[in-house]
Amino acid sequence: MTLTDFGSDLRLAGGITSVSHRTRSSRPRRIAAATRHFGKRCYDELVPTPLLDVQNLTVYFPGRDTGKNGSAPARVAAVRDVSFTIFPGEVLGLVGESGSGKSVTSLAIMRLLLPQARATGKILFDTRSLPRGQNDSPPDLLQLSDSEMRRIRGARVAMIFQEPMTALNPVMRVGDQIAEAVLAHAGEKSEARDAENPSHPANRRVDKHEAWRRALEAMKVVAIPDHERRARDYPHQLSGGMRQRIMIAMAVVNRPQLLIADEPTTALDVTIQAQILELLADLQARFELSMLFISHDLAVVSQVAGSVAVMYAGSVVELASAREIFAVPAHPYTRGLLHAVPTLHTDRSRPLEIVEGAVPSTQDLPPGCAFEPRCGHRVDDCARALPPLVEVSPGHLARCPVLNPASLVRS
Fold it and tell me: What is the CATH number of the domain that holds 50?
């Protein structure tokens, strides 16, 4: 079966209609080229210069149970050693089941974690439009002050949250909520930001009339019919698809460099879901957005993303181009997920394949690979320590000590 056949079957099984793509990621080719030039390397040593570079991100939350002798509860790692990059114009799909750490990862990038949470590692974000000098590294979002982060959040990095009805203010008109996003960032004008990029919309001071005009323009961009009248509606007066479009308008009104879409099609029927995906593809092409697209739906990710990162129990277990992930899955967990999806070629006389066992609790994770208790290919090294994310083929990375290039059998 070819990748085209598999993608079509996966899309139809999920009820998704075709979504056009004007741009595709060239990141796997860049990584492969760098690998050929410099030889095989671990993930952290690969060369290109990304817009977003997440390095060894770990997020801890305080545990619920007290320790021995009444001591403070041990902290729980909801995200462990997550690393990935997003390049300008690239769409990276972050896929995994509920509780795998996808949303916590996105909230860590936005610096919106609970005060009790503690994040370690690095989140490097290139805020400048001009190429950096050799010794000029991008800022680490985890090290910025609150005021510095506020200038980036919403203006440079924006997020579409999972549930619009809870993310929107129920007693505020939707047009005013979009205009408020404009005022919150355009009103923070400073000489440093002007020097950085004076043409960026978020760097120009605006009044309320200009903010309202931009809000209406954003609603028009996301294809809300009769947008001038709808701007005066409250969230409860809009359908689920309309509310999601309002969230998208609020996210893109300041023309961010990076858009984080946290399951933007959840709870929408397949027709509206296809419209939202088409809208995101149009916006990504029009504004040259980079995008982190989070979903648990493999059919959606196969149509949206150029590269895919698979998460399991708080860790990225596989990272490659979408073509490689769906045609030649390397990690046993990814293989199990794809084999469990029914397609048009599935033998209906036989039961569907399943991944035996259950996802371990974040409070009781094994010291090694979290998938080791469920894996049929496990070896002793799997249980000793969390395996590193390393190459198994050019541009294709997996977190599994069993894998090697010879183990990738193309079907």
Answer: 3.40.50.300
Residue with tokens 């010794």: 135
For the record, the structure tokens of 17 come out as: 């209609």
Which candidate, 209, 205, 227, places its Cα nearest to that of 218? 227
Where does residue 272 fall: left (phi above 0), alpha (psi -120 to 50 degrees), or beta otherwise?
alpha
How big is the CA angle at 359 (ends 356 and 363), to the nearest 5 degrees?
150
Range of the domain at 295: 3-63+75-154+256-407
Bridge partner residues of 77 (DSSP): 60
Look-up: residue for tokens 């088409």? 278
Query: Does residue 222 lie within any of the structural domains?
Result: no
> Which residues are CB-contacts of 134 (< 8 A; sequence separation ≥ 6)?
none
Task: Output the CA torsion 88→91→94→95 (10° steps).
Answer: -170
C-alpha–C-alpha distance, residues 162 and 121, integer Å: 25
The per-residue pLDDT for range 293-323, each reduced to its tens digit, is: 999 888 889 889 999 999 999 999 999 999 9
CA distance 397 to 54: 15
DSSP per position, 335-380:
HHHHHTS--TT--TTSPPP---S-PPPGGG--SS-TTGGG-TT--G
Q: Which of 24-28, 84-88, 359-363, 385-389 has the lowest mean pLDDT?
A: 24-28
Q: Are 93 and 320 in contact (CB under 8 A)?
A: no
Note whether residue 377 is domain-resident: yes
User: What local confidence, expressed as pLDDT, does residue 121 receive?
Assistant: 97
- The alpha carbon of residue 347 and the mean position of all alpha carbons in its chain are separated, in whole angstroms, by 34
* 330 part of a folded domain: yes
Tell me which H or E stretch contains 308.
strand 307-312
The number of folded domains in the chain is 1
**3-state secondary structure string, 272-297?**
HHHHHHHHHHHHHHHHCCEEEEEECC
Within-domain flag for 199: no
Question: What is 197-235 written as a DSSP string?
Answer: -TTSGGGS---HHHHHHHHHHHHHHTT-TTHHHHTTS-G
Buried b (16+ CB within 10 A) or exposed e, 108-128: bbbbebeeebebebbbbbbbe
